[in-house]
Amino acid sequence: MNDAWLYVVLLGAAAVIYAFLIPKSKTANQPLGNERMVREVEKTLEQYMAEMEKENDDLVNLLVQIRQETGAKQSALQEQLADMRGRLADMEKTSGKHEAKIEQLSSADLRIAQQAAVQLRNELLEKAVTAPPEPEVLPEPEDSVRQRYPQLFELHDQGKSVDAIAKVVGLQRGEIQLILRLAKREEG
């Protein structure tokens, strides 16, 4: 490390000695050369400054353009967002109307079913009251529901679901539920 410093010091000393050895006769021509060199340096610096100014202007223009594009994109996105919000509000209104209509239809179906049941009950009561008593005929022994659908009740007794029974037996889910209710009435 000390060797490197030694070389630097020696090199510096050599440069100083060389500077003293340069002939002094060239000093008369030096002012013209220095002036020319100063003009060239000034000219070069002016060109450099002009280029820097042009690059700065280009950069500013680019930034302005980017800002405008970003503003336009942001405006477009805000318009799109407002449109989407409007659509969402419309869909929510429509959904509310549909739900109200479904509720209305469900309650109407329930009322119709209740009215039909009341009407059927009244008709049956009317027939029972107006119909002459029929002679008692011993009913023929009918098969019970359990005897008609042994496989269904076997699966039900095993704890199978109505859907599983429907797949095995080949009946509709509603039919199976009806048969099971009828069997409960027979037993009860």
- Helix content range of the residues, please? over 70%
**Number of strand segments:** 0
Structural class: mainly alpha
Stated plainly, the CATH topology of the domain at 145-188 is called: Arc Repressor Mutant, subunit A
The DSSP helix count reads 6
Shape: elongated
Rg from Cα: 53 Å
Biggest β-sheet description: none
Polypeptide structure, described:
The protein has 188 residues and is mostly helical. The protein has a domain at 145-188: Arc Repressor Mutant, subunit A, CATH 1.10.10. The chain has helices at residues 2-21, 30-130, 145-148, 150-157, 162-169, 173-187. The longest helix is centred in the middle third of the chain and has 101 residues, at 30-130. The N and C termini lie far apart (113 Å). The model has no long low-confidence stretch (mean pLDDT 81).
